[in-house]
Amino acid sequence: MDEDTSYCEPTEVTAVTKPAEGPYAECVLCRKPTEYPESTRGITLCPVCEWHEAQRTACSG
User: Which of 21, 26, 28, 58 is 20 to 30 A from 52, alpha carbon to alpha carbon?
Assistant: First the structure.
C-alpha cells in the first residue's frame, strides 16, 4: 500500500443540489410530496420512505 494514500483522509465536500421548485411528485408509498419534480420518471419516494427502503435493503443481506 502506498504510504501517501490514507483511507481516513477527508474527501472534498461538494455543493448540495437545490431541490426542485414545485410542483413536486407524490411519494408512491405514503402520497406525501417528495423532493423530486412531477416530471421525474420512475418510482419517487419521500425522504422518510427513502430512508425506510434503504434500511430494508441493507438488512435483506
Answer: 21
